[in-house]
Structure formats: C-alpha cells, structure tokens
Automatic annotation (TrEMBL):
Keywords: Lyase. The keyword Lyase applies. Pfam families: ECH_1. This is Enoyl-CoA hydratase. InterPro entries: ClpP/crotonase-like_dom_sf, Enoyl-CoA_hyd/isom_CS, Enoyl-CoA_hydra/iso, Enoyl-CoA_hydra_C. Belongs to the enoyl-CoA hydratase/isomerase family. The keyword Lyase applies.
Amino acid sequence: MAHEHEGEHEFILEIPEFEHLSYEVEEGIALVTLRRPEALNALSQDLLQELAEVTEVIHQDPEVRVAIFTGEGKAFAAGADLKEIAALKDPFMAREYALLGQQVFAEIAALPLPTIAAINGYALGGGLELALACDLRVASREAKLGLPEVGLGLIPGFGGTQRLPRLIGRGRALDLIFTGRHVSAEEALSLGLVNRVGEDALEEAKKLARKIMKNAPIALALAKESVVRGEGLDLAEALEIEADLFGYASATEDMKEGVRAFLEKRAPNFKGE
Ligand SMILES: C/C=C/C(=O)SCCNC(=O)CCNC(=O)[C@H](O)C(C)(C)COP(=O)(O)OP(=O)(O)OC[C@H]1O[C@@H](n2cnc3c(N)ncnc32)[C@H](O)[C@@H]1OP(=O)(O)O
C-alpha cells in the first residue's frame, strides 16, 4: 500500500502490511487500531514491532496532522502479552522486553504532532502505558484503566512508573500502582488520567482532533516540543527553550496568516509553513 502526494516533488510513502494493527488516514487524522481482539489486544512483541513501524510511517506521512491510537473490540489493550512474559527465562531477557516497550512508546511520545489514545475499554498494564505515551487520552464511559502488574509479581515496565506520576502526581500514581485496581472512566477523569469521557471514545477523540487541527501545525509541534523538552529541566532552562521555540513559531508563514486573519476578522487558512 502506498500514499501518493502529487506536487512539486512526487513523494511515495511505502506502508508495510500489518498483521496485528490497521492504519488509515482520513482528513489529516491517522488512525491506528490494535487488532488482536481475541487476546484483548495484548501487546505481543510482534505487535510492539508493528507499533514502531506504524509510528515511523506517521512520522513520514505529510498528510497526518493528528494521530489517534485505539483498540478493536472490548479492550484498548489489556497489557503486555502474559504468554510471552511467562516465557521470559531470566532477568536479562525481561529487561530487554521492558526496553523494547519503552523504546516503542518513546517513539510514539516523540512524534512531532498531537497524539490521542481513544480508550474504548480495558487499558491495563502496558495498555495504559501506551495511552500514557500519547499526549491526550479520551475514554468511553465503560473503560477501565489500571496498572495491575504488582498483582503478577511485576512492576510497570513500559514507562508507567515514570509517566503516570508525572501526569497525575506521585501519591495518586502510587495508589494505582500499589493497589493495581481498575479505575472507571469517571474516576480517571477526576484524577486527570484522561482528558475527556464520552459515549464513544473514538468519536470523542476525532472531535478533539478536529478542534486541535484548526490550529497551526508547526505551532502545535513547537508547543509539544516545549512542554516535553522542558519537563526534565529547571524552570530557567526550560523557559529559555520556550523563548527559542516562540522565536521559531514567529518566523512561520502560518504566524503571519494567523495574525492577518485575526485583524481581518476571518478564519485563518494555515498551510503548515
Ligand atoms: C510491562 C508491562 C507489563 C504488563 O502489562 S503485565 C499485564 C498487565 N495486564 C493484566 O494483568 C490484565 C490481564 N487481563 C485481565 O485481567 C482480563 O483479561 C481482563 C480483566 C482485562 C478481562 O477479563 P475477561 O473479560 O474475563 O476476559 P478474559 O477471558 O480474561 O480474556 C479474553 C482473552 O484474552 C486473553 N488475555 C487477556 N489479557 C491478556 C494479556 N495481558 N496477555 C495475554 N492474553 C491476554 C485471555 O487469556 C483470554 O484468552 P483465552 O480466551 O484464550 O483464554
């Protein structure tokens, strides 16, 4: 499969055949759907590999403005594949396994565009960690979220011990990590673990994507970069980065268009330039 983009330079994007997920792009929104419903979309190594590949495709696809990750069936993803975890022979293999998940999720987190997890059902363990690697999370009312690893004698290993406290604070994160309990969509909303709850997670996520896409694409990428790069730094250093990126944003055609449109009392027509 390939998308063709006609224009000054013809560009052909090769899209691999995926077995455990599907990829489509509609009106600027990339939709990645995990498709192992018989195992509640458990994240096998093959599926993680495909997630890495699809992330690279999203990175290269100039049509994509926002990416949504979701799952087929009653789960977003019920965690790492426990059959594969059971087969890990020693701590070194287990460490490699954690590093694989961490690396794939770091690639998703580093995408230079807004990403949304549409949590249509269970998001447990590695499944929640995938959602945490996205910028925003939208859940359906019946979704259940949690990090149940300690109940298996494990700990969250695909980023959960780091991204969850950064998102909702240490105390609330440790409540979820120590108890392993499943929280409802409503509680997840009150914890700040999800941004929105709706009848249909995917429809709600698309609505949010369309709202985001009204804004200038380069500004969105720079705003994300500023937030992400600033996270590990002290305030003074982080503010310097913000000022630099504000400078980049001010040099775009879209900035001129945005300001002109405001003064002319019309909607802006952003081109991502
Ligand atoms: C670094 C990251 C580490 C981790 O992520 S560790 C894993 C953390 N996740 C979990 O512990 C959740 C495991 N799953 C469950 O607790 C339950 O499932 C649910 C509560 C999500 C749903 O329960 P119900 O509705 O009764 O479905 P069902 O019969 O348990 O599952 C349907 C099929 O899906 C398989 N499955 C579910 N989760 C996983 C998984 N994480 N890895 C591999 N397979 C899984 C089952 O075994 C079963 O399959 P079959 O029909 O062949 O018996």
